[in-house]
């Protein structure tokens, strides 16, 4: 090997496109704030990009919930069924993950719900509750227009799903019909929610200061506690001063508001996706796209001769081959150590990479993930400033936040710069938020029925 040419300075220069200045971040915050106001407004909601759906959940858990509850959690490539037993001072939970085959993700809605009901029945048999009458909470992590706690119309599929016959329909009814078609289960669906709401419920069960739930996983979304008087679109029972808002902020930017910070790589990802023009912010943040963003940049820099001596590999040039988990692995190496990076590049058929190449690859990963962390931070700071409460805990779930080695630190640092003076916040990792949250929604709903009885 001759003298390795160090192209790192040039790679750093190319990667500047991923850097968002503080001025740009403040601009993003102001645009998101305006979009949230539009989503909540009576006259502006219909045309707003950030929908701010009402969840019809107005009570957080108070720790007094008791009993056995089932939960379904559907939001990505697999789904989970859970059983939760809430006692005086214990909290038992068993869950099982079931795959959703691709042909079902892109088949009919009927087949999807039949598959879910089948797995639910099997799970109930395995846990000896097959004959019991149980309340169930349903986490469904796609944009829903909620008409009540147990009624939600699917607005659009995201994250690689495209089942026919479900958009515009009531998802709870779809599940109930599938359960009825079987005829062997005695279940009452007590509530439907998405994973951001589940995360908020789950964290609030443990921490009364939790008022925001965030997902940074396959997709990205946020849910927060809003004053009822600020929600012009609310038409439920009067009397409660607060309610949970599901922002659906993944769609932020669908009207071009983020174009001033998007790169050619973002545009390429969007064009080739199953939902072009939709979920623009999500595509800059979430785990479904982060690895591919890195790959597209690596391909460009390879063609420019800045990486791998201009020699790529079949895998590098193949869409979807650079997994988001690679980003976390590469950034987990200590500075100057490239063990994980070398492993990843070998898996991609790039064993001819030099140490300078590895430093370049690592830099690309850092730029893409830092931008994602800063974009999420801008969103969280916007919510904190809007709520303007002295102390808020932010519950966060999702694979990117959970597994990326620096995401938490990047977010703490950035949010602290962006919130109003005097607002204290902390970030709490949600343990199993979306599933447990669904069971808690069912539990709170049952608690209320008891108190009305």
Automatic annotation (TrEMBL):
Enzyme kind, highest EC tier: transferase
GO molecular function, one term: fructokinase activity
Location of the Hexokinase N-terminal domain: 11-205
Cellular component terms (Gene Ontology): cytosol; mitochondrion
Limits of the Hexokinase C-terminal domain: 211-444
InterPro entries noted in UniProt: ATPase_NBD, Hexokinase, Hexokinase_BS, Hexokinase_C, Hexokinase_N
Biochemical pathway: Carbohydrate degradation; glycolysis; D-glyceraldehyde 3-phosphate and glycerone phosphate from D-glucose: step 1/4; Carbohydrate metabolism; hexose metabolism
Catalytic reactions of this protein: D-mannose + ATP = D-mannose 6-phosphate + ADP + H(+); a D-hexose + ATP = a D-hexose 6-phosphate + ADP + H(+); D-glucose + ATP = D-glucose 6-phosphate + ADP + H(+); D-fructose + ATP = D-fructose 6-phosphate + ADP + H(+)
Keyword Nucleotide-binding set for record: yes
EC number: 2.7.1.-
UniProt entry keywords in alphabetical sequence: ATP-binding, Glycolysis, Kinase, Nucleotide-binding, Transferase
Keyword Kinase applies: yes
Lineage top rank: taxon: Eukaryota
One annotated GO biological process: glycolytic process
UniProt similarity note: Belongs to the hexokinase family.
Annotated function: Catalyzes the phosphorylation of various hexoses to hexose 6-phosphate.
Name of the protein described by the UniProt record: Phosphotransferase
Species this chain originates from: Pieris macdunnoughi
Lineage: Eukaryota, Metazoa, Ecdysozoa, Arthropoda, Hexapoda
